[in-house]
Design brief:
Blueprint (H helix, E strand, L loop, with lengths): L15 H11 L8 H8 L3 H14 L4 H19 L6 E2 L1 H8 L8 H20 L2 H8 L2 H24 E4 L4 E5 L8 H15 L20 H17 L3 H16 L3 H4 L14 H34 L7 H15 L7 E2 L2 H9 L5 H18 L4 H5 L3 H16 L8 H16 L3 H41 L1
Antiparallel strand pairs: 1-4, 2-3
Helix pairs in contact: 1-4, 2-11, 2-16, 3-5, 3-18, 4-16, 5-13, 6-13, 6-14, 8-13, 8-18, 8-19, 8-20, 9-18, 13-14, 13-15, 15-18, 19-20
Amino acid sequence: MESPNQTTSPLLHRGWRHHLARLSCATNFRLKTTIWSELGGSVGDLGTYIPIVLALSLVNHLDLGTTLIFTALYNILTGFLFGIPMPVQPMKSIAAVAISESQTHLTIPQIMAAGISTASVLLFLGATGLMSFFYRVIPLPVVRGVQLSQGLSFAFSAIKYIRHNQDFATGKSGSSRPWIGLDGLLLALSSILFLVLITGSGSGDAVDQPLLELEDPNSSNNSCRRRRGRKFRVLSAIPAALLVFLFGLLLCFLRDPSIVNDLKFGPSKIHVVKITWDDWKIGFVRAAIPQIPLSVLNSVIAVCKLSTDLFPEREVSATAVSVSVGAMNLVGCWFGAMPVCHGAGGLAGQYRFGGRSGASVLFLGVGKLVLGLIFGNSFVRILGQFPIGILGVLLLFSGIELAMASRDMNSKEESFVMLVCAAVSLTGSSAALGFGCGIVLFLLLKLREMDCSCIGFFKSKSSTDAETGLNS
């Protein structure tokens, strides 16, 4: 977490050798993580990534191969630079506008223009130090309200995925999901039970559970603790989320064996997207304007706060995260890669399933890169058959983990601000609106406390004056 006097990122002052060493240390067993845990955490944010990428590919003809390659490179670089499972997720507001049926679907140049515009704002805020200033002055209850609303929003969407068939081309829920089948409700519920059994209640319940040091090996209590510690060590070695995801990939081919014939080998051709002046105007007004406040709040400030909660020993500054989001899109969007950001939900999801270092997203990046280079855009046929119920399960755990970050509100006033901020964000479908209401509410409560303290001061002063007069 940044100190009050810190305005620049330590990442800008440390060399590559330091970050490589930190990554290699972070993947050491002594820091309570294993390669299997990192592999499990690597798929923790795919419940958000796959539905949005699939919708953009089907509706707006986004080139999946290009997006896979660029997001893979982003994952690898951020894994080395930050040393934590820093996610690379789609810009959700831009995606929502792009596939919305209320207006004409956005074209690829318009989507890229929106991504570049948003990235330029974040790069400016990061480079000038304004993002660090916002991170220091924004009250914690307001940040927690944004995190709570985003987490619950993910969880609500996940329940819809699990209960109903989804049409990503229209964004609408279909008929109720049948109980039996290769994408049935029973399969989704079994996945939930399996993940709960292996990973527990979240926040590293299985991964971080220590094997307690025993003072008296003959004690029955210590023997119980020893067996419990061994059990948790065994559970932490199981990459539960990765197994569920791989099982979902297997079901893709069982549901439609003909997708094998549609696969084409070789990466997509990389080309520069031509953006006209009209594309800039439409992309900025319709998509970038609603995306910018969401990126500032959830992709930078909430991510930095959550990373401080989860990894207090590793420093991640708002400046570095903001510059990272800006740099990624100012490069990739010119070549047609999907606009991306660092989402707090993705970080929570990858931590939930075992990610404890940059190795987690590095493994994910290598996997995306292989798929993008081998299958290119034809991989969209496989994703089109992926069981939506399993995606909903992964998204559900990610959303709950993000929402649980708000459990540290200890006072009634803090909880009040957080809950109002979350409620407005959810009902108004706007994190910016909830943020504004939370700030106003927080200031009003502080003003009320200040008024009470002033009254107490004057009463105390009057009593002192009265006593002085009596003594005289």
